[in-house]
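Hi there,

I know you've been waiting on this one. I reran it after we fixed the sequence typo, so this is the corrected version. Both the input and the resulting structure follow.
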Amino acid sequence: MKKKIKNIMLYIAIPTTIAYIVFFLLYYFYQRMFYEYRLLAIIPFLIVTMYLMIDNIREWKVIKQQS
């Protein structure tokens, strides 16, 4: 059980958190520099979200197979 929790934290939670932190930093700078086009920043948000969903589903399958 401890190994499963460790794997979830290491391969799912931490990368997801880091990705969203980086995204929101970029989004903040994007809003400051291009205020008129701030709605276009939704595109990178969707890309990051889709990538993380696909990656997390793949990691979840691997973790379930290991246990």
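Quick highlight: Residues 2-33 form the longest helix (32 residues).

Best,
R. S.
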